[in-house]
Amino acid sequence: MINKTLGFFLLLWLYSLAGAEIIIVTNTNDSGPGSLRQAILDANATHEEPDSIVFQIPLNDANYVAASGVWIIRPETELPTITGIGTFIEGRSQSDFIGTDTNPDGPEIVLDGSKSYSTNACGLRVSTEGARIWVLNIRSFALANIWLDNEYSDHCNVAGCYIGTDETGSNAPPDSANGDAGVFIQGGDYNHIGQPDDSFGPNVISGNNWSDVLISSTSYHNVIAGNIIGLGADLEARLGTSSIGVSIQQWADSNGVYDNIIGANWYGIKLWLNASYNEIAGNMIGTDGTWRDGWANNNGGIWIQNSQYNFIFDNVIGNNGYFGVKIEDTQSVGNRLIHNHISENNGPGIINTTGLINAPVVTQVTDFSVSGTAPPNALIEIFSDPEDEGRTFLGEIMADASGHFAWNGEVIGPYITATATDASNNTSAFSLPYDFTGVPDSHGSSLPHAFELRQNYPNPFNGSTKIRFSLPKRTYMTLRIYDLQGREIITLAEDTFPEGVYVTIWSSDGVPSGMYLCRLEAGEYVATRKFILQK
To answer: Over the stretch 212-240, which tens digit does the pLDDT of each residue have?
Structure first.
């Protein structure tokens, strides 16, 4: 205890030598001397160097909660906007002052907006460059818990905070109230939401009503890295709501979302309304590398809508309620997916409705090669998967000018899929899967011996269902869905396919509940299965 206390006062002395003013918060009062409100007002006044706000609140303060080891500040109205350049709010200073870690589960200082919720208050609003907000629990504010508000909010850092949770990071706030956003960046550039070094734990940003992290309005070069988003600090609690984990929108360009764990929201990440040139890399979205359950986003992993030239690479995306990645609208051009691991989603791994690029067709697989057809001169990525997505990246090859590709390397099954990316960086959906278990090998296994349309799974189903069919020879075939009156609902496949076992998905968006017929026609072979859709 003595060493930690001495370290705290040494920190104050070093700041004073540097010319920065140390402003000490000594109580949890809403206003007046020693309050956080007064500290922000003092930091906003003119000083030669950036000011630091530190906490030195005694154990006998009226709002110290001994059971959880936290001091709760409840503003009755919105706190002053932080305008002092480089203002540093350092939550770790409280445990340094006390000499012990009173809340081993998270921050000691809690900023709680429940008293000001009806006034549409924000937690900490920043309108200056270089501000740092470290190791606070900020929750229950109506607009945003942290708002980097306008073009002056540049080069700020938020680290080690619990935003939208309680002080443990693994439960909703006691009043279960949160506002529109956890962290809202509106017009600011070069901000970093994440750890500046290894001495910090991750931000936990979860349970916020609209978006846990929202980047909007021509915000550029912001980095969201190393955070837990939508889940609890224990990685077990599902704290997301009907919200978006990370929303990048309205001409927010060249931002990066790296190495986050994102789950339990409606969508993991959404890029929309002309969000362009953003990078999404190294994230675990809905699952981890072991394909664990419990992290799933309720609808989709990454949704790209009306947005251009985004780069999605090296992510693990799985177990989500519908799709892994969805790219839609003809304006969504140049969105590139490379080296991702996508599997175990309840619907398609990749949906691409732009009409800009067709999926490749895998026509032949051996123990050491994959070949097929694709858009001419496209980059082809080869995957293996338990079903019809792309869990394991095997390799890549360029299609030639006529659209043929032949990749050589060790092939693992049970199913082989591929994607195509053209010269304009448009990436396709996955190909239909090729059943590698049916390829002749040294053990004498063989291709399917008969045509077959298997029963869909699941059945009954809600949203999407998987349909498996077998072709014993190269055949022109159609696979269509009809209602009981014989009206065609959708054509799922219509082409000449090589022999093999295939899996496709019917996504029943816009189709009412009821019984439907799936009909496979392949040469003289005709088969029908009944499907039950329950919404």
So the answer is: 999 999 999 999 999 999 999 999 999 98
